[in-house]
């Protein structure tokens, strides 16, 4: 942050800022130089912040009416839906808000994958993001248990049983998580406590995520380092603020469509049946945003290895900045990576689809192939591709190819760029 | 010399402080961790008595023990023969049917799939025993895993026949 020397115009502002430099922070956030070529895929950070705040606010209100007790939980949720003023709206916003949150986070993650935003010097931003994503999954899972419907109960049973796959201590850990010998009242009350806690942990990590972002500044669609501030940048306010706001508006149309027109389409009908520990629903399926990992879990015939594969699928992302050996960030200049990127997108969509289908026959075969490909992409294709791929020339700055008219004259190859950068670093 | 000595004494104080601190933190954290384990009220519900007089051959009842379903199945002769005619080599988790029951007619076991804890459906699956709808594990008429991701046979809890018509589980 180079704007430490900011002086507030008013006397009282200066007095306050000398004691707590909040105005310096506000000034930094306002003037923050942002690449001028950011496209709409870059608006999802703001959208995600909105989603988090929405979940916290609606969750706080729901907590005023919800009762975490196996005998009362289901009824209290119906009470919210039928009796509480606007309870139906608040709960539908909260439930669909979780789905919208994941929709936005997946777009945000895949934007990073396309434009190489996880690469040096942004590894910490990326890893903080993965931790946020993990916490989001934990929060969503525990939140789904709270209504104490059939899917809540059996989802909780299946997911907590994942830990029983750990050799020797697995059973003990599962019993400890449950606070009993099965998912029951102690499990519900602790899930409620944690479900309330996690969003605030996420909020703290989001602050770190943004802090880490503001050190190197935003990546951009061209994926090159730019001088900040320069004619390649615009101040965050009003340029990015207004763009983010417009994108948020479009996002809210989709959000509102789900809430008002089809609020239950992303849920499961079985969850409107109260939990019954003696009857498992015929077809247990997690929420849509967990389906790809569920498909990976089921594609491995061994219990422990299935669990290991599922967790590895997420944790492998932590190593991504080092697995991707290419020095060129943006897929725009990586003709082969661009194709593999889209194959990965399709692969994950296929995993999501087969995750929702019964684990047998052709579905199982497809799930196994797609699981294998997922790991091959990260462990083999990315490291090899980065070393062998012939990348297209990358521009020296965002403005130059446009302003100069003859784009090629001002371009250099990826290697040249790195060399000159190394030189400039001394 | 004296300098070195003093350094060593200081190291000792640091190490001793850190150790005492670690022990203290550990002792303070343990109650916070252990409170999540099953409490006294949960442990108190340790055993259940079941009247089985009304169960006819071929029928199965499900009772709750420690919050978990327990299957009590009165097997037909055909089902018993089927369970006993299987060679142990064919089993993923080899256990003789004789070792899984106290009375050949009555199969008592936790009705919980050993994969991820769903309740299997009875009289279903490729081995005419149980079938878990969650991830496709097939169990035979002795509750042994035959096909699918579950690693072991369905668990047999501790139980005794108090008399002809009563089973005490736990």
Secondary-structure map with pairings?
The complex is a heterodimer of chains A (426) and B (170).
Chain A: H1 11-19, H2 22-31, E1 33-35, H3 44-63, H4 73-82, H5 87-115, H6 123-145, H7 150-161, H8 170-178, H9 185-214, E2 233-235, H10 236-261, H11 291-299, H12 303-315, H13 320-323, H14 335-356, H15 361-388, E3 394-395, H16 400-403, E4 411-412, H17 414-425
Antiparallel strand pairs in A: 1-2, 3-4
Helix pairs in contact in A: 3-5, 3-9, 3-10, 4-5, 5-6, 5-10, 6-7, 6-9, 11-12, 11-14, 11-15, 14-15
Chain B: H1 2-34, H2 40-44, E1 48-51, E2 60-65, E3 68-74, H3 77-84, H4 97-100, E4 106-110, E5 121-124, E6 129-132, E7 137-139, E8 145-147, E9 159-163, E10 166-169
Antiparallel strand pairs in B: 1-10, 2-3, 3-4, 5-6, 6-7, 7-8, 9-10
Structure characterization notes:
The complex is a heterodimer of chains A (426) and B (170). By secondary structure, chain A is mostly helical. In chain A, 63% of the residues lie in helices and 2% in strands. Chain A contains 17 helices and four strands. In chain A, α4 packs across α5 and α14 runs antiparallel to α15. The two termini of chain A are 23 Å apart. By secondary structure, chain B is an alpha+beta fold. Helix content of chain B is 29%, strand content 26%. Chain B is built from four helices and ten strands, in the order ααβββααβββββββ. In chain B, the strands form three sheets. Chain B has a four-stranded antiparallel β-sheet with strand order 5-6-7-8, with no helix packed on it. A three-stranded antiparallel β-sheet of chain B has the order 1-10-9, with no helix packed on it. The chains are: A mainly alpha (426), B alpha+beta (170). At the A-B interface, α7, α8 and α12 of A face loops of B.
């Amino acid at each position: 942050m180079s704007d430490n020397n900011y002086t507030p115009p008013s006397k009282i502002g200066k007095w306050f800022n000398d004691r707590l430099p909040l105005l310096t922070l506000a000034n930094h956030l306002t003037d923050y130089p942002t690449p001028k070529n950011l496209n709409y895929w870059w608006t999802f950070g703001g959208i995600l912040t909105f989603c988090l705040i929405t979940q916290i606010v609606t969750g706080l209100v729901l907590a005023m009416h919800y009762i975490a007790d196996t005998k009362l939980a289901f009824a209290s949720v119906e009470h919210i839906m039928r009796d509480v003023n606007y309870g139906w709206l608040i709960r539908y916003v909260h439930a669909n808000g979780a789905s919208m949150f994941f929709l936005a986070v997946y777009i945000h993650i895949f934007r990073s994958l396309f434009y190489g935003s996880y690469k040096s010097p942004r590894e910490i931003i990326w890893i903080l993001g993965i931790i946020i994503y993990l916490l989001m999954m934990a929060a969503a899972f525990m939140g789904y248990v709270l209504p104490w419907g059939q899917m809540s109960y059996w989802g909780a049973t299946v997911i907590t049983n994942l830990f029983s796959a750990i050799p020797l201590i697995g059973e003990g850990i599962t019993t400890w998580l449950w606070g009993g010998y099965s998912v029951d009242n102690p499990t519900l009350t602790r899930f409620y406590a944690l479900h309330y806690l996690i969003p605030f942990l996420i909020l703290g990590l989001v602050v770190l995520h943004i802090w880490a972002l503001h050190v190197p500044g935003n990546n951009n669609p061209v994926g090159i380092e730019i001088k900040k501030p320069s004619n390649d940048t615009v101040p965050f306010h009003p340029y990015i603020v207004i763009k983010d706001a417009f994108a948020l508006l479009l996002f809210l149309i989709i959000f509102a469509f789900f809430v008002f027109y089809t609020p239950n389409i992303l849920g499961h009908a079985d969850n409107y049946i109260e939990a019954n520990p003696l009857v498992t629903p015929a077809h247990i399926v997690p929420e849509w945003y967990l389906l790809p990992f569920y498909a990976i879990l089921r594609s491995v015939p061994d219990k422990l290895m299935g669990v290991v594969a599922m967790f590895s699928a997420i944790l492998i992302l932590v190593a991504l900045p080092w697995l991707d050996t290419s020095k060129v960030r943006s897929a725009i200049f990586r003709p082969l990576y661009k194709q593999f990127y889209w194959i990965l997108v399709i692969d994950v969509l296929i995993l999501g689809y087969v995750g929702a289908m019964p684990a047998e026959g052709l579905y199982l075969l497809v799930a196994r192939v797609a699981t294998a490909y997922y790991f091959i992409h990260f462990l083999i294709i990315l490291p090899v591709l980065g070393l062998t791929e012939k990348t297209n020339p990358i521009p020296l700055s965002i403005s130059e190819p446009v302003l100069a008219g003859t784009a090629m004259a001002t371009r250099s190859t990826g290697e040249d760029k790195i060399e000159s950068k190394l030189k400039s670093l001394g | 010399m004296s300098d070195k000595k003093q350094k060593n004494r200081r190291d000792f104080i640091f190490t001793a402080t850190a150790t005492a601190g670690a022990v203290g933190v550990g002792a303070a954290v343990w109650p916070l961790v252990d409170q999540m384990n099953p409490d006294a009220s949960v442990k108190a519900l340790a055993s259940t008595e079941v009247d089985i007089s009304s169960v006819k051959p071929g029928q199965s009842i499900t009772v709750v023990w420690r919050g978990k379903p327990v299957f009590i199945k009165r097997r037909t002769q055909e089902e018993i023969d089927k369970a006993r005619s299987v060679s142990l080599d064919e089993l993923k988790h080899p256990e003789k049917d004789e070792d899984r029951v106290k009375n050949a007619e009555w199969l008592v076991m936790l009705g919980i799939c050993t994969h991820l804890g769903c309740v299997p459906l009875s009289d279903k699956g490729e081995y005419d025993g149980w079938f878990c709808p969650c991830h496709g594990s097939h169990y035979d008429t002795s509750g042994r895993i035959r096909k699918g991701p579950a690693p072991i046979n369905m668990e047999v809890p501790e139980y005794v026949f108090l008399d002809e018509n009563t089973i005490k589980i736990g």
